Amino acid sequence: MDFYRNLYNGNAMVRFREPSRYPGKIIPLGIILAFLVLLQICGEHHSTKYNENLPPETSIFISSSGILNPTQSVQVISWDGRDPDGFVIGFYYRWKSNADSTEWIFTKAHSDTFELSISGDTASYIFQIKAIDDDSLADPTPASQLFPIKNTIPKIGWITNRRIPDTTFTVASFTWNATDLDGDSTITNFEWALDDTMNWTSISGILRTVTINEDNGLTEGDHCFYLRAVDIAGAKSEIIRMPEDMTWYVKEPVNGYLLVDDYSSETVGSGYPDKYYKGLLKSLIGNFNYWNIEEQFPASMTQFTETLKLFDRVVWYTDLIMETDDHFIAAQVAIPEVLDDSGKVIYICQFNTGFGSQGDPLAFTPVDALGDYYSRISSLKIFSPQTDIQIALSDTSIKLPELKTTTNIFGTYSVSAKEGSVVLYRYDGKVFVILGRNDNTGEYDMVFSGAPLHLINGNSNLDDFFDIILNDVFK
Q1: What is the pTM of this model?
Q2: What residue numbers bound the domain in which 206 lies?
Q3: Which of 282, 280, 318, 267 shows the shortest CA–CA distance to 297?
Q4: Is 290 strand, coil or helix?
Q5: Which of 74, 183, 444, 454 has its CA at a distance of 20 to 30 angstroms from the CA of residue 140?
Q6: Are the beta carbons of 205 and 233 closer than 8 angstroms?
Q7: Distance CA 116, CA 95 (A)
Q8: Nearest to 63 by CA among 123, 127, 109, 107
Q9: 224 and 196, same structural domain?
C-alpha cells in the first residue's frame, strides 16, 4: 500500500510519496517548494484582488487650479468619465452656491447649458460632477470647478417694422425686443417715460409692448417716448427713444366723428372719393376727424383698435379688398370692438375677384354670403331703396332716396343679408347695401355697402342717404 504525506499551504494541499519507500521515483524538493510558493501567490490574488471594483474618474473640460475670469450666468459645460475596469453609465452633478448643498442630479449627457441665478453684481458657483460605473460605484473624488459670475446689462431695441406713424390720435403703441445674457427671465421690469427722462413708469418685464393714451399724458402736440430695461440686479439698459431723432404729432379728437380714408388713389378714375366724403361730413357734421390709414396705418393692432374706439361714429371707405389685406384684417378685429363699445360704423368696400374663398371673412358684418359677381355696372343704373327699414325702426317717415350710378363700376359682388339685418338697396334685384343689427345690444349699428357709394350719386342725393343713417338711424 502507498504511503503519502500531506503538506498544507493556505488553500493548497500537496500529496507526495515518501521517497525513502520509493527510491526510484524521487521528486526534487526544490520543485516542490517552488510549486507551493506559486500556489500561495495564486491563492492570495484570488482571495483579495480578483473581484475588487475600481472607481471611475471624472474630468471637466473647463478647469483650472486657479480662479477663472468672471463670466456670464449662462454656462455651457462639458465633462467626461473613465472607468479602468468597466464602463461609465452616467454622472451625478450639482451646483454648490453654499456648503450645505447636497442635492445631486443624475444625467447621461456629457454636456449641458446652465442658467445660474444672480441677484447682485457678482456671484460664485461651484460645479461638481462624479462619474458612475456599471457597478454603480461613484467617483469618490468628484471633479470640481469654481465659476465666478458677473451680471450683464440687458439689451433693448425697437422692432424695425413697428415704428410709430408721424401722426396719431391720443393712442400710441410701442413694441420692442429685449434680451439678457444672464437669461431673459432676469429682466424684471421695463421703464418708460414720455417727452423727457425725469419721470419713469415701471411695467412688467414679461411685456414687449405698451399702449399709452390721454390718461398717460398723450395730449395735442409733439411727443417722444423713452424706454429702458431693468434686470434683477438693478442694472439698466441703454435708453432708446421713439422716434429716434425727432417727435411725432398727436391730434386730440375734435368730436365723435371719424372719417377713415382707406382708398389707394384720389383720381378721376377713382371718382375722387376723398373729396366727396370730406365734403359730405363737413356739410352734415361740421368739424370731424380724418384718418388716412393708407399713409398712417399703425403697426400695432391694439393702437388701431383703441384709436377707432375713441369715436362714436366711424365712416370707413375703401377700394378693392382681399382677405389678406392688412387693413381688412384690422377691420375684422377692430369693428366688432367698436360696436361692442356702443360705436356705430358705416363700412363701404368693393370686393376683388376671388374674395371669400377662404373661411368667413365677412363674419363681422351683416353679410351672410357673397352673391353674383358683376364685372361692370354701367352708369345711370338705379339702386332701388327698400322699405324694410320703416318696419324695422317702426318709423314710416324714413324714406331712403333712389340712387343712380354716376359712372361705370367695375368688379363688384352682390350679397345676402344675415337674419335680423335690414336690406337698404338692391340693384338688378340683388342686395348691395345692408343695415346690421347688433346681437348683443339689439341696436342697428352698422351699415355695409359692397359697392362704392360715392360712384352712385347720379341723382345728387347721396348726401340724403347719409343724413338719414347718421342722424335718424344712428341716434
Answers
A1: 0.76
A2: 155-249
A3: 318
A4: strand
A5: 74
A6: no
A7: 9
A8: 127
A9: yes
